[in-house]
Amino acid sequence: MTHSEITQAILKKQSFLCIGLDVDLEKIPPHLLAEEDPIFAFNKAIIDATHHLAVAYKPNTAFYESYGLKGWRSLERTIEYLNDKHPEIFTIADAKRGDIGNTSSRYAKAFFEHMGFDSVTVAPYMGRDSVEPFLAFENKHTILLALTSNGGAFDFQTKQVEDQALFQSVIKTAMTYDHSDRLMFVVGATKDEYLAQVRALVPHAFLLVPGVGAQGGDLAAVCRHGMNESVGLLVNSSRAIIYASQGHDFAQAAANAAQQMQQQMHQILTERGSR
Amino acid sequence: MTHSEITQAILKKQSFLCIGLDVDLEKIPPHLLAEEDPIFAFNKAIIDATHHLAVAYKPNTAFYESYGLKGWRSLERTIEYLNDKHPEIFTIADAKRGDIGNTSSRYAKAFFEHMGFDSVTVAPYMGRDSVEPFLAFENKHTILLALTSNGGAFDFQTKQVEDQALFQSVIKTAMTYDHSDRLMFVVGATKDEYLAQVRALVPHAFLLVPGVGAQGGDLAAVCRHGMNESVGLLVNSSRAIIYASQGHDFAQAAANAAQQMQQQMHQILTERGSR
User: Fold this and answer.
1) CA neighbours within 13 Å on the CB side: how many for B80?
2) Which CATH number fits domain A3-271: 3.20.20.70, 1.10.287.1700, 2.30.30.60, 3.40.50.720?
């Protein structure tokens, strides 16, 4: 999927919402536990109810891995369902991988080829040869952690390296990697004061913004600081949408929560004339 | 497994060798491809032939993930086999995970509880709340990336942050985390000039040293700079051992390669009086 296809979907749906599929068997409606594959059943229902309101889905691999083989199978069924039924959706494997070159190639193969995700999140600590194997895939996107939404982000990411913060050094350095046009960056919504700094460094890149909703980020502030002329934002919400209800109405409740976000996004896009 | 149990195994086997199980179906002996589970068949043969020469095995999850469900199943069978047949072996999930708190908890659960690994490698970029969920597990070990063995390590890890290199800041900061006594650190053998700096910061921690063998690191130099009074090293070799032969003699060839390493280690331990 190209940048311009993502932008077209955003303008068409008037939404830059990404829904995080962080499925926890203790939080999904109990009646689904009787299903043969409760995780996939949950995801399918959420996707069916919200796909017209979101442009991207982001399963976090940790939740699936914690259920072992069964969980991995649910992840594969979920991405297969998304690719089959909703090929216009941008898919993100939130895996935060990264290793030496030959190993990163394996991860890239796992997520891009084997499972067919459009993108994967990657940790930058190991540098160029840990990131470029992901960037080598045409029409795929590598979403590099720049500034994350958690408290621990201040341990290293905001520390001064030479005359800039580490997250700025990460972005600038990564933009020198081969195929850096295939990079996107994770920038947490809980730190909207940094969003403008990131946007200044990468005026054209998509930013994936977690932390709106359960983690407390403010959508309007994110847009004020992070939008570019072709929107350039994917704002993720996970728990606030998928766990809006634990009852039989969970899918409808998720759709309602997603619609609230979409309506706020529509209003913001309208105000800036992106219809 | 406690530090002192690992040290006892090292002294008993006169080896601090860790064998990396980075299984690539294109590199294993072709005759194994007829097996129902070639990856597990390969690992089992390697483990059977080398377990008396090594104190640790380290499957790199990327290789397994790249084969999807089938690969994940081979990984589960491999760790199950190690835990059943060789409970004295220290097991490392080389997964390089790390995410926000509730998500890191999931990864910790996946590797420590579901699969029963003794340890997992973790990337430090997201800071305290991405690492502590791993450290919360008693009798488990979190092996934090400090200085990796690849070229990209110089992109960020050796950059000056305040008055020290980032990898030094990572180690010092991590040592303030809860249960930091459960930390070990990855320090690449290709940069033995840094090993002494790391050892000075963490005199008692185990260091996992990749990069000996195929990546060119020198064992004697690693030991000179990295050993502490209870050895404190796990030196990994992957390709040089497991791909020593692609013929029917592959397991014996792996054992021979492992034995060469073990003999060098035995000599080093003898010279410093650790028998």
Assistant:
1) 9
2) 3.20.20.70
